[in-house]
C-alpha cells in the first residue's frame, strides 16, 4: 500500500518537473537516475503516517499520536474542556462540543472538526489534517499517510508587532468602525449590565458581550427581529441542529458546577449562549451571535455574508426562560466581538468600552 502511494507522489513530482522544463529548452535532459533517487529518498523521508480508527461518525486520529508525529505541543484543560495545540508556528484551539476550529486567533470555515473523547483518549477527525493543516492525505489500510515538511511559516493570525493590549478608544473605533449594528435601527444599550465586564452571578462569571434588549435599544425587538451579519465576512458557525438544555435540571447542574468552580468553564459558557452563528471578518475580527431563536435554512458555514445578510432571529435560547418554556421572556441578542481570539474590550475600561460602542454605532 505504501509503495503505491509513493508511486503516485512520484508521478505528481514528474508532472511538476516537466512543467518546469517546458519553460526552458525542449531538449533539456531528463533527470538522471541519481536525481530520481534523491527525489525518491526525500519523498520517503518526509512521509509520515498516523494510525486511524473509524468511529460512529468519521475516521479519527489520536491527538497524542498526531502531536508526537508532528513534533508539536498540546495542552488539554480539563476544567474548560479546551484543547490547544502548537504545530510548527501555528496555534490551534478547540472547545469540546463546539465545531469551530480556531487557528492563530482566526476561525476556519469548517464544521468538520470537533473534539472526540473515547475512554479518556482524545481524537480529532482526519479532516483536521486536511482542513486544519492543509495536508493531502492518503488512506491506507490502518494508517493515513501524508508528506510533512518543515519548518513552516505561521498561517494568518495577527501581523508582526500587533499591539492590541496597548490600544485606546480611538484605535479601537478605527479598527471596528466597519461594523454595522446587528439590529437595524436599534441603539446600543448604555446600561452597564448589558455591557462587557458586568458580573453574572448566576454562573459565577462576567458578561463578555453586548446585549440588545427591546427596552434598552429603542424598542421593537421580538422573536421575528432579524439579526444582520454587520459587515462582509464568512460564516464559521451556524447551529442548525441546535438543541437547547433538555430540562431546567440539566441547566442547573451546569450552573451548580460553575458555583463549585467559581468560574464558567468554556464548554458550559458555550451551551449557555444557546443557538449561535459566528461570522469571521477581515483583520481577525469575529462576532458571536447568541441566544438566537432561529437561523435561515439556507445559511451555511462557508457562506460569504454582508451587512444586508440576515444570519438569524432574536431569541432567548440557552437562558432559563427558554428552558422553562417561556419563549417570549428575556428576549435579547447577545453579541461578542473578538479580535484575533481576544474579547475586544480587554484593553479598555467599561467607560472606554461604552465610548467605543457609542462611536461605532452613533
Ligand atoms: Zn448577554
From TrEMBL:
Organism superkingdom: Bacteria
Q: Name one Pfam family in it.
A: Peptidase_M23
Where is the signal peptide, in residue numbers?
1-18
Q: Where in the numbering of this chain does the Copper amine oxidase-like N-terminal domain appear? A: 56-143
> Quick check: keyword Signal in the entry?
yes
The name this protein goes by in its record: BH2643 protein
Q: Region entry Disordered: which residue ranges?
A: 22-45
Classification via InterPro entries: Cell_wall_metabolism_enzyme, Cu_amine_oxidase-like_N, Dup_hybrid_motif, M23ase_b-sheet_dom
The protein's UniProt keywords, in alphabetical order, are: Signal
Domain M23ase beta-sheet core, chain residue ranges per copy: 272-330
Show the CDD domains listed in the entry: M23_peptidase
Q: Which GO terms describe its molecular function?
A: metalloendopeptidase activity
The taxonomic lineage of its organism, from the top, reads:
Bacteria, Bacillati, Bacillota, Bacilli, Bacillales
Q: Which Gene3D superfamilies match?
A: Glucose Permease (Domain IIA)
Amino acid at each position: 500500500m505504501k509503495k503505491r502511494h509513493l508511486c503516485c507522489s512520484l508521478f505528481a513530482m514528474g508532472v511538476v518537473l516537466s512543467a518546469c522544463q517546458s519553460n526552458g529548452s525542449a531538449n533539456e535532459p531528463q533527470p538522471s537516475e541519481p536525481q530520481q533517487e534523491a527525489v525518491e529518498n526525500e519523498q520517503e523521508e518526509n512521509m509520515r503516517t498516523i494510525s486511524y480508527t473509524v468511529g460512529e461518525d468519521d475516521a479519527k486520529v489520536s491527538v497524542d499520536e498526531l502531536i508526537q508525529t508532528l513534533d508539536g505541543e498540546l495542552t488539554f484543560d480539563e476544567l474548560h474542556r479546551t484543547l490547544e495545540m502548537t504545530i510548527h508556528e501555528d496555534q490551534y484551539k478547540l472547545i469540546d462540543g463546539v465545531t469551530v476550529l480556531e487557528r492563530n486567533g482566526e476561525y476556519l470555515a469548517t464544521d468538520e472538526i470537533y473534539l472526540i473523547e473515547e475512554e479518556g483518549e482524545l481524537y480529532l477527525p482526519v479532516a483536521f489534517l486536511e482542513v486544519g493543516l492543509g495536508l493531502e492525505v492518503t488512506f491506507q489500510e490502518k494508517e493515513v499517510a501524508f508528506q510533512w515538511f518543515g519548518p513552516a511559516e505561521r498561517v494568518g493570525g495577527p501581523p508582526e508587532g500587533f499591539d492590541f493590549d496597548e490600544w485606546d478608544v480611538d484605535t479601537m473605533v478605527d479598527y471596528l468602525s466597519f461594523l454595522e449594528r446587528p439590529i437595524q435601527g436599534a441603539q446600543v444599550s448604555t446600561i452597564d449590565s448589558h455591557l462587557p465586564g458586568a458580573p453574572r452571578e448566576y454562573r459565577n462569571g462576567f458578561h463578555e458581550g453586548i446585549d440588545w434588549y427591546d427596552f434598552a435599544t429603542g424598542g421593537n425587538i421580538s422573536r421575528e427581529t432579524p439579526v444582520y451579519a454587520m459587515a462582509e465576512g464568512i460564516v464559521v458557525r451556524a447551529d442548525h441542529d441546535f438543541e437547547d438544555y433538555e430540562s431546567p435540571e440539566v441547566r442547573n447542574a451546569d450552573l451548580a458546577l460553575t458555583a463549585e468552580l467559581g468560574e464558567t468553564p468554556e464548554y458550559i459558557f458555550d451551551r449557555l449562549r444557546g443557538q449561535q452563528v459566528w461570522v469571521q471578518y477581515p483583520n481577525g475580527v469575529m462576532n458571536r451571535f447568541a441566544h438566537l431563536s432561529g437561523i435561515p435554512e439556507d445559511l451555511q458555514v462557508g457562506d460569504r455574508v454582508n451587512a444586508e445578510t440576515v444570519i438569524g432571529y432574536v431569541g432567548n435560547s440557552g437562558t432559563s426562560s427558554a428552558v422553562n418554556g417561556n419563549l417570549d421572556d428575556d428576549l435579547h441578542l447577545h453579541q461578542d466581538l473578538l479580535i484575533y481570539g481576544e474579547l475586544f474590550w480587554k484593553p479598555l475600561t467599561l467607560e472606554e468600552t461604552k465610548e467605543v460602542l457609542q462611536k461605532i454605532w452613533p
